[in-house]
Amino acid sequence: MNRLIYRALSSRFGAHLELQILMRQTAKAFGVGAPKAARCSTPELLKAYAQFTSEEAVRALEHGDDLEALHQKLYQMACGLGKHLRRWLRPKDEKDCLAVIILLYRNIGIQMEEEAPGTICVRKCYFSAFYTPEVCAVISAIDQGIFAGVYQGGKLSFRERITEGHDVCRADFR
């Protein structure tokens, strides 16, 4: 794995840059402009991203948008980001891929680990304070896309979510 880029992403600057890119790309997938947050601190930017994604998902749910089309847009956007990260970081194996994912998610307030082979466990999720179960289900297309991009394929399927009242989120990745 490219350790220099990995270290850069691990920095405060890397986390801020990751959030800025995620904000812009997510806004494109929703078909709206990104909120102005250029001069925000990283914690302020994370909060703005959580609020923005929640509001846009709620809007889509309330207006009866084509959720399958939205899911595809969010998935494709995130998959593209994951593929770029894979090219930059050049993970050698699945262990490296998981390390990339864990770093990315740590940068956005999500503490996760591989509980067992193919089982991802999220112990803490910053977004669970902002998302309803329905919003979480919409936004999880981003998670599915990131995983597929970094791993060059595969399917992430959630079976438990913090937003549904569980202590943790559990997902299977095949």
- Measured as a percent range, the helix fraction is 55-70%
Tell me the number of strands.
4
- Characterize the overall form: globular
Query: Strand-and-helix sequence, N→C?
Result: HHHHHEEHEE
The strands making up the biggest β-sheet line up spatially as: 1-2-4-3
Low-pLDDT runs of 5+ residues are none
Number of helix segments? 6
CA distance, first residue to last residue: 22 Å
Computed over alpha carbons, the radius of gyration is: 15 Å
| Structural classification | alpha+beta
Assess the beta-strand content as a share of residues.
5-15%
| Quaternary structure type | single chain
Main beta sheet: 4 strands, antiparallel
Average the pLDDT over all residues and give the rounded result.
Answer: 94
What can be said about this structure in brief?
By secondary structure, the protein is an alpha+beta fold. It is built from six helices and four strands.
Textual characterization of the structure:
With 174 residues, the protein is of the alpha+beta class. It is 60% helix and 14% strand. It contains six helices and four strands. The protein has helices spanning 3-10, 12-30, 42-62, 67-89, 94-107, 133-151; strands at 110-116, 119-125, 156-160, 169-173. Strands 1-2-4-3 form a four-stranded antiparallel sheet. Strand 1 and strand 2 (119-125) form a beta hairpin. Helix 1 (3-10) packs across helix 2. The model has no long low-confidence stretch (mean pLDDT 94).
